[in-house]
């Protein structure tokens, strides 16, 4: 390169749980030569972006936090968005990450330099290079808005749940909520009391279980502060219960019938109208799509100012929304709760590997990686919350910490090898890992439950969920197996010329 640019050992992309966790782990490994590149003006990831009314986590607070940064002061058993965001800001402060974080630095392109064995990174604030890239952009970072004919000419207000417009007053308005996912079931009861009319466009009914949320008492918080092992025990109990549930999802979906009965009873308690109850009863096995938790969603739907259209939005004519079944509804505002680009992550368009192809091109037939972390043809690049690391019933923080263990050992292996060196995942190893994962996926509820979910990619392959326990994933990512990697040295060096190592991972 003709011009000198800043060079770092590691560039971390994103400052949500994955990015901040990676930064903490790098410091613990004695690596301080790193930056965290964040496109927004503050840390927090999805918990910064999703500030819609009622936004909260559906995993218990004491399990939805880092094991190395317990929080004895969670105010509720299921925390709200503002408390999780404050926790992440706290992590950035306590672990002295602020000097490493570059806010307002959106990564526009990353290219692997096969001669220098490093990544060239273009950001919105300039260029830099890095020996290793840790991509922690997360699967829930880029909102997905469906292409609806007539949407561009809708005269009212339109926004996605992850880009909530707090300046727009919904009071007295006729509002359409598009989608019935985890965001929608929190938004609906939050805005229902203040809007004139709320119309919910439901393409697929979700299974909804009660949300056992309550205030954490002052005595509990005092106990967790004074005797930290009690918080650890609480976390362990929450983890263990969820580990025991996994086999029903992954091996014996028929065992989920009892849970379906409980979900139907939960609905019947609030929905007395048989016609509405029929609309809201799913036609697929519980667990096939994410089981949602809410104690106020069904009561809100039963209110007189709420309509449920059991059909997806097909077209917009002026201010009239037309459903696929022909139902017409005139509204002032449209809120999309239609999820994110999960199986087609936009960051993949911005990563150019050793052979000049983007990660999106490499993944055109479906995302796949080695142990959810590394991709063939992309040396010294790894992702946090990569393909097949998602969960259907437990805390993603457990999976993130497992991947941080893998990242830490990856860095140790590079140090042991010494000099200018890279590790490239062998295509054979990536293929073998993914064949095993997909074989196990065949009998899971996510593949056999009779639904179409955001877990599946365009070809119907589940590239999102991990088909096992979090404990098993922890064991599988405890360390790097060098036999699964090619060791890459700069072209022309003695090691490369000797044939002991390969020039680049093809």
From TrEMBL:
Q: Could you tell me the keywords of this UniProt record?
A: Oxidoreductase
Q: Is Oxidoreductase found in the keyword set?
A: yes
Q: Is Oxidoreductase there in the keyword field?
A: yes
EC top class named in words = oxidoreductase
Question: What is the E.C. number?
Answer: 1.14.13.-
Official protein name in the record: NAD(P)/FAD-dependent oxidoreductase
The species is Streptomyces pratisoli
